[in-house]
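Morning F.,

Quick status update on the modeling queue. The single chain you submitted on Monday has been processed. Sequence for confirmation:
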Amino acid sequence: MSEYKKYTPENHTEELFELVGRVKAFSAYVNSTKYSIEREICASMIGFELEEETKDAREDSNIKMDC
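Structure tokens below.
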């Protein structure tokens, strides 16, 4: 169990502010990381449960994406 209390937004505005903060933190992390980033940290920062990695997922991670 996490040592931090789970924050639950009380309305849509608070939820939006939380998401904006998560995206800004994630952006700062990605921009400050010289090498590849850890999927566990990404999931934690954005706020989703990480699926177990499968062989196919490891193979797909080599695909380059144009963003």
